[in-house]
Write a structure and sequence with these properties.
- The structure is a single chain.
- By secondary structure, the chain is α/β, with parallel strands linked by helices.
- It has a single domain, classed as Zn-dependent exopeptidases (Aminopeptidase).
- Helix content is about 40%, strand content about 15%.
- The chain contains seven helices and eight strands, in the order αβββαβαββαβαβαα.
- It has a six-stranded mixed β-sheet, sandwiched between helices.
- The longest helix has 21 residues.
Length: about 240
């Protein structure tokens, strides 16, 4: 019979390990010289807990077209790319869902399935003491010519507005929007969040050219990099 060992790592222990690895400077003495270890590329992100929320999931596909292209699938790939970049920078990414499911079972006390799903996402951010909440979505309207990214924040929350501005400044280099692209949004997850929180509509599935881009792994990666750069700018200026 094989022995099974279970190791329980608390959140405090996890953060201690991450911070210890980030801030400890090792000096290696060789040939009379002291060589410091390389510093992390984005020290402002080290140890920051960031909830990354791919919108929709499960029975809720989000925006979609007649060919079966679904928002929930696109945003999940972008979110996974973003989490990889954050982990590489020694932040602590929290992915609300890493598969095709809804989050409603976490908050069954809410009045409707939709509200349960939304409340669960914010509950994850609050229960992990996250430093920022980023919800990723894809837009759809009647016009096929509109394209580009828009970032929403909740009114009267200056930190959320600042986060939205930082992300918009970097994502517009990838997905420029013709018009005001940092907007107040009256959305549950933004209003309920007790931390800097934004919703990022990364593009329009109703625009044929942009839809094709949104399905491309390389473009999904570029969007993730832009969001990552916006987060770096936010925490560096905080």
């Amino acid at each position: 019979m094989k022995n099974i060992f279970v190791v329980v790592v608390t959140k405090r222990t996890l953060l201690s390990l991450l911070l210890g690895a980030s801030f400890l400077v090792l000096l290696v003495v060789a040939a009379g010289r002291a060589i410091p270890a390389l510093a992390p590329p984005h020290p402002a992100l080290v140890g920051k807990i960031i909830t990354v929320d791919p919108g929709h999931g499960g029975i809720d596909p989000g925006s979609h077209d007649s060919k079966g292209i679904l928002e929930k699938d696109i945003v999940l790939e972008i979110a996974k790319n973003l989490c990889y970049l954050l982990a590489k920078a020694r932040a602590v990414p929290i992915l609300t869902r890493h598969g095709d499911w809804e989050m409603s079972p976490i908050r069954p006390e809410e009045s409707t399935r939709h509200r349960q799903d939304l409340a669960a996402r914010i509950h994850i951010a609050h229960s992990t003491n996250s430093d920022a909440f980023v919800s990723i979505h894809v837009n759809k309207i009647g016009s096929s010519s509109t394209s580009g990214a828009i970032v929403f924040y909740s009114k009267s929350k200056p930190e959320s507005r600042h986060l939205a501005i930082c992300i918009e400044r970097t994502i517009r280099n990838v997905a420029p929007f013709r018009g005001q692209s940092v907007l107040e949004g009256d959305y549950y997850v933004l209003n309920a969040a007790r931390l800097p929180a934004v919703i990022i509509e990364v593009g329009f599935i109703s625009n044929p050219k942009e839809k094709e881009l949104l399905l491309t792994p390389s473009y999904q990666g570029r969007l993730a990099e832009a969001i990552f750069s916006g987060l770096v700018a936010f925490f560096e200026s905080a």
